[in-house]
């Protein structure tokens, strides 16, 4: 065999191996089909070169070259088509059609001397000699190869994904350079005695094969395992060992070493001191090539195991877990999602890496396709594997969830066959694929992590129960203190109520005593007025006397009204079922307070709702409320323009009656508004106020099922509003 035919033989083996791998492991996508066609055409080309280098007849070599080039002319067209599909280029499809048409024309020329005129003898063997039209093929091949290399470089520069960028680099260094090397075979084809560069295509093809296993360039789902690599390495060393034995046997066959002990000893020493270190160095090279920057599997597992037994803090465990996975696998981002208290969502708990730049979702529903898939299958979800089965509607939803979370792998955390959370992993920083060792480590970490988190959650629940128990004891103590305070306050209020009741009885007695003489005097005056009106018309009485008597009757009527109001307001009944009209209550309060403001330049504006419905309650108690509120307004009214607005209204939506009193005084500062309804709180000078007025009003209104509030008057002064339910509504 011609030694110069060894490189094309190695290239032939590479093409055959890649073709077989594509058939056995690859999916029948357009990319893989085009790649397989390129491998088949490359196989034909290198069979041609191998045979031509070793045949003895020029005529045979010429026939082989012409038969081979009948198919090889399509190589540049398929090569162009492959990269358009691989790079997802939808533009310039016309260029692909033109390339195939151009190749068809060249195919028609291959059997003639216009394409290959003859074969030429070189130092390495026979090689085809180009005809006058062969430069057409050279130009097309050179153009396509340069065009493809430019496309790959542009794609590498614009690509954002580390994994995809590394894939493109391997494609450039492997398949791209291989095409350029084959295009340089133009030199021996045109008569130059230069060894064909394309024969060394096995070198970039080996680089491409490394990319296939390391980065899954053909999307076959093959994950690298150290055992497989080391087994292949051992097989190669064994073959090399056998070749050395065969070569030594041929080299020393003329010498008789059968009776000598030195040759076996020397050969053993050669194997022991050369092949042992050589194997170790090659293994170290493989580790650097395929597993550069990898984690220590046992060290990582040991670290997580120690964390489980030594750390009970929930937040610390989750933080260390994410730090461990992030440091071990060296990914772009790592995020932990755990089930929330309502068991309806998985909430993002902690993150590591550049997750802030990708804006990860804060939560994901427990009914999402991703959560359902992990609960059912209980194994890591790999996005790359899902893309091979995109036809399923369920997988489409699953991929959508993975895209939202920017996840390459979702690692479930299972506790007693229940999904308690999951870990999201982004792409590796190196752009490498996740290997089988990565998956083994992740599954081990997931089981240990789930156990650690479950223990931490149980500890946290116990701690929270203890804390809540202490809090409840403290709250119960506060309740007891509040009950004692309320008891003392109620006793004090009862004493004051009894005092008020005594005063009410006194007022009622005085009112009854005054009512009788007032009634008698009123009757006498009215009779006198009637007699005077019937006096002799010739000698009429003095008109001033009649006017004075009418004025006295009017004042006596006002006195009776005041006495009536006193009787109404002093009535001490315990019933809250009377029909009370707030218009009447307000008017009675104003009659009683008339003496306090009659000499002041005070303007009282009354706006009563004439259709105001009644409320159910105690007339005397509500009268006390109106009396206190209006009295405070009179005392607070501004000296310059003293005005008080009293109005009533009915809200049909809330079914409530409103009694509002607004004064023109200085108002109530915001700093004390929260204290004005407290007992014994007053802003008046000592001796002028007890601080019980608004407090008692507030309690009375509350017993009536209503509310007393200080409203925003929108300007100067204070505005108090009493809201009460209408008759028929629920009340105490």
UniProtKB/TrEMBL annotation:
Which reactions does this protein catalyse?
A: ATP + protein L-histidine = ADP + protein N-phospho-L-histidine
The protein's Enzyme Commission number = 2.7.13.3
GO: which molecular function terms? ATP binding; phosphorelay sensor kinase activity
Q: Tell me where in this chain the Histidine kinase domain is found.
A: 509-728
The protein's name in its UniProt record: histidine kinase
Concerning SUPFAM superfamilies, the annotation shows: ATPase domain of HSP90 chaperone/DNA topoisomerase II/histidine kinase, GAF domain-like, Homodimeric domain of signal transducing histidine kinase
This protein's record includes keyword Flavoprotein = no
Keywords annotated in UniProt: ATP-binding, Kinase, Membrane, Nucleotide-binding, Phosphoprotein, Transferase, Transmembrane, Transmembrane helix, Two-component regulatory system
On whether Amino-acid biosynthesis is a keyword of this UniProt record, the answer is no
Q: Which CDD domains match?
A: HisKA
The protein's matches in Gene3D superfamilies, at most eight in alphabetical order, are given as: 1.10.287.130, 3.30.450.40, Histidine kinase-like ATPase, C-terminal domain (3.30.565.10)
User: Enzyme class, one word?
Assistant: transferase
User: Transmembrane segments in this chain: where?
Assistant: 6-24, 33-55, 67-87, 94-117, 132-156, 168-188, 227-248, 260-278
């Amino acid at each position: 065999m011609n030694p110069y035919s060894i490189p094309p033989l190695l290239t032939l083996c590479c093409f055959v191996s890649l073709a077989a791998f594509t058939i056995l492991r690859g999916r029948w996508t357009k990319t893989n089909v085009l790649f397989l066609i390129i491998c088949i055409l490359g196989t034909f080309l290198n069979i041609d070169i191998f045979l031509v280098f070793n045949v003895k007849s020029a005529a045979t070599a010429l026939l082989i070259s012409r038969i081979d080039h009948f198919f090889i002319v399509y190589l540049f067209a398929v090569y162009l088509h492959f990269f358009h599909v691989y790079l997802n280029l939808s533009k310039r499809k016309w260029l692909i059609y033109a390339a195939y048409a151009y190749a068809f024309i060249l195919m028609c020329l291959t059997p003639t001397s216009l394409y290959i005129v003859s074969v030429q003898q070189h130092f390495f063997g026979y090689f085809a000699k180009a005809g006058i039209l062969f430069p057409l093929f050279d130009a097309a091949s050179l153009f396509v190869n340069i065009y493809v290399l430019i496309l790959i470089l542009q794609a590498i520069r614009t690509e954002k994904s580390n994994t995809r960028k590394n894939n493109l680099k391997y494609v450039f260094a492997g398949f791209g350079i291989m095409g350029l090397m084959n295009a340089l075979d133009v030199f021996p084809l045109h008569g130059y005695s230069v060894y064909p560069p394309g024969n060394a295509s096995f070198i970039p093809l080996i680089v491409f094969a490394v990319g296939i296993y390391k980065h899954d360039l053909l999307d076959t789902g093959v994950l690298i395992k150290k055992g497989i690599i080391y087994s292949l390495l051992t097989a190669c060393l064994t073959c090399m060992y056998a070749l050395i034995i065969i070569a030594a046997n041929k080299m020393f066959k003329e010498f008789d070493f059968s009776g000598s002990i030195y040759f076996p000893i020397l050969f053993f020493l050669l194997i022991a001191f050369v092949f042992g270190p050589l194997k170790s160095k090659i293994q170290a090279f493989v580790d650097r090539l395929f597993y550069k920057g990898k984690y220590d599997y046992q060290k990582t597992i040991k670290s997580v195991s120690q964390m489980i037994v030594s750390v009970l803090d929930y937040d610390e465990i989750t933080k260390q877990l994410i730090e461990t996975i992030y440091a071990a696998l060296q990914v772009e981002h790592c995020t932990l999602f755990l089930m929330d208290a309502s068991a309806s969502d998985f909430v993002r708990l902690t993150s590591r890496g550049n997750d802030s730049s990708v804006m990860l979702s804060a939560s994901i529903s427990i009914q999402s396709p991703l959560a359902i898939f992990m609960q059912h299958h209980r194994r890591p979800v790999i996005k790359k594997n899902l893309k091979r089965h995109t036809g399923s509607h369920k997988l489409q939803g699953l991929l959508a969830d993975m895209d939202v979370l920017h996840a390459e792998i979702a690692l479930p955390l299972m506790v007693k066959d229940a999904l308690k959370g999951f870990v999201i992993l982004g792409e590796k920083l190196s752009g490498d694929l996740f290997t089988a060792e990565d998956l083994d480590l992740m599954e081990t970490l997931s089981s240990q992590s789930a156990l650690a988190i479950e223990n931490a959650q149980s500890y946290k629940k116990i701690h929270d129960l203890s804390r809540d128990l202490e809090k409840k004891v403290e709250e119960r103590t506060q309740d007891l203190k509040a009950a004692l305070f309320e008891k003392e306050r109620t006793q004090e209020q009862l004493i004051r109520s009894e005092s008020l009741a005594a005063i009410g009885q006194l007022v009622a007695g005085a009112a009854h005593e005054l009512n009788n003489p007032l009634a008698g005097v009123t009757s006498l005056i009215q009779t006198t007025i009637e007699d005077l009106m019937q006096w002799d018309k010739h000698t009429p009485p003095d008109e001033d006397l009649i006017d004075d008597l009418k004025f006295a009757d009017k004042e006596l009527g006002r006195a009776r009204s005041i006495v009536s109001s006193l009787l109404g307001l002093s009535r001490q009944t315990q019933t809250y079922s009377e029909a009370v009209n707030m218009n009447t209550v307000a008017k009675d309060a104003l009659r009683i307070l008339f003496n306090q403001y009659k000499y002041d330049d005070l303007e009282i504006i009354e706006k009563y709702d004439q259709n105001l419905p009644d409320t159910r309650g105690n007339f005397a108690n509500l009268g006390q409320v109106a009396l206190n509120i209006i009295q405070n307004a009179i005392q607070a009214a501004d000296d310059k323009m003293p005005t008080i607005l009293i109005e009533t209204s009915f809200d049909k939506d809330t079914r409530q009656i409103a009694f509002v009193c607004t004064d023109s005084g200085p108002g109530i500062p915001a700093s004390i508004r929260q204290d004005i309804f407290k007992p014994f709180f007053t802003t008046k000078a000592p001796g002028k106020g007890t601080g019980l007025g608004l407090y008692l009003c507030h309690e009375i209104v509350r017993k009536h099922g209503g509310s007393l509030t200080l409203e925003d008057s929108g300007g100067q002064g204070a505005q108090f509003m009493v809201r009460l339910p209408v008759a028929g509504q629920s009340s105490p």
